[in-house]
Specification:
By secondary structure, the chain is mostly helical. The protein has 4 helices and no strands. The chain is flat.
Length: 90
C-alpha cells in the first residue's frame, strides 16, 4: 500500500473514531482505538479520542482527578509500541 492510501485510511479511521465518540458507547470507542493502535504506527489519535471520551462522559466525581480512560489508553499505547518492536512479523 502506498503512502497516499495509508494516509487516506488513517484519516478515515480518525473520522470514524470521532463519530463513534458521539454515537456509540464509550467502550466501543476505546476498543476501536486500541485496535487502531496495533494496526497503525504511532496512532496518538487514540489517546486524544480517550481524552474526549473522558471529558464528555466521565462522572463529575471521578477517582482522584484522574482521567481513567485516557490513562488506560496511554498504557495501551505504550504497551503496543513495545510489543510491536518485539514482534517478528510486524
Amino acid at each position: 500500500m502506498n503512502i497516499e492510501n495509508k494516509i487516506f485510511v488513517r484519516i478515515v479511521i480518525d473520522v470514524l473514531l470521532l463519530i463513534s465518540i458521539f454515537i456509540l458507547p464509550w467502550w466501543f470507542t476505546v476498543i476501536a482505538a486500541a485496535i487502531s493502535i496495533f494496526f497503525f504506527k504511532f496512532f496518538l489519535e487514540s489517546v486524544v479520542a480517550a481524552l474526549i471520551v473522558d471529558v464528555l462522559y466521565a462522572p463529575s466525581s471521578f477517582v482522584a482527578g484522574f482521567y481513567l480512560i485516557t490513562l488506560g489508553m496511554v498504557f495501551i499505547f505504550i504497551f503496543f509500541q513495545i510489543i510491536r518492536k518485539k514482534l517478528i512479523f510486524y
